[in-house]
Design a protein that fits this description.
The protein is 53% helix and 10% strand. With 241 residues, it is an alpha+beta fold. Strand 3 and strand 4 form a beta hairpin. Helix 1 packs antiparallel against helix 2 and helix 3 runs antiparallel to helix 4.
Length: 241
């Protein structure tokens, strides 16, 4: 919505450079550096029919549709090529140049949800700093080698608990734990978020050859000891399809 609103306002005033910068920043910062990075796991490893993978594909299609429409007036050939490769769905115009610009839908704007995710992204930034410190100390190599424990003030921990199922993907680590016990011995103390401590440790278990996560279930599946239980479930679902 924010990208659409900003671009439509810029078209009204013929400030095309604003649209270029908005598209560039959205694609490099919001998509490439964050959203696409955390989606890789579910897109690559989840079963094609799973709700997780389908929801991700739905969002990506909606994002690409909007981006192509927004860029069409100023990048006509690029937008046209994108449009030709997009899946043919009911109601799709033959050419993007006869399609309408996207419309900002107020009902989809949720300031409270945006605020909650802004806070989670701030925590992600601090976790990234802690992971980098651990990397320098040779405790881990890749972030997936790590198990992360977070301790924070009550309000922040409550927020993180609400999204506990997503944190492993958001931080790109093999395991995430939350603690209400205050500071953690040997943990990284955030300078930007008061009361936040991040403890990085090597993740237990073995590395799954399919998803690259470290998990205690790897090696326990008799006929496929090289993969984790989650990947085994996904493969079973794929084989049933």
């Amino acid at each position: 919505n924010e990208l659409t609103e900003k671009s439509l306002a810029a078209y009204d005033t013929f400030e095309f450079h604003i649209i270029y910068h908005a598209l560039y920043n959205y694609c490099t910062l919001d998509l490439s550096a964050f959203y696409l990075d955390i989606l890789k796991d579910r897109l690559y490893t989840s079963a094609p029919g799973s709700a997780e993978r389908k929801s991700a594909q739905t969002v990506l299609h909606a994002v690409l549709d909007s981006i192509a429409r927004i860029m069409a007036p100023i990048l006509p050939f690029t937008a046209d090529e994108i449009w030709k490769y997009m899946p043919m769905i009911k109601g799709k115009e033959e050419s993007i140049h006869i399609a309408l610009l996207p419309v900002s839908i107020k009902e989809r704007k949720d300031d409270r949800l945006a605020g909650r995710w802004k806070k989670i992204l701030e925590v992600r930034g601090e976790v990234t700093k802690a992971l980098e410190e651990a990397r320098i100390k040779k405790l881990i190599g890749h972030s997936l080698d790590a198990s992360v424990t977070l301790a924070a003030e009550s309000d922040l921990i409550t927020l993180l608990e609400d999204y506990s199922g997503e944190l492993r993907s958001v931080f790109i680590t093999s395991r995430v734990s939350l603690s209400r016990d205050g500071s953690l011995p040997g943990a990284y103390e955030s300078r930007d978020i008061k009361g936040l401590y991040v403890l990085v440790e090597p993740s237990g278990g073995k590395k799954c050859e399919r998803c690259w996560m470290y998990d205690l279930s790897v090696g326990l599946i008799a006929d496929e000891p090289e993969i984790c239980g989650r990947c085994r479930d996904a493969l079973d679902e794929i084989n049933k399809a």
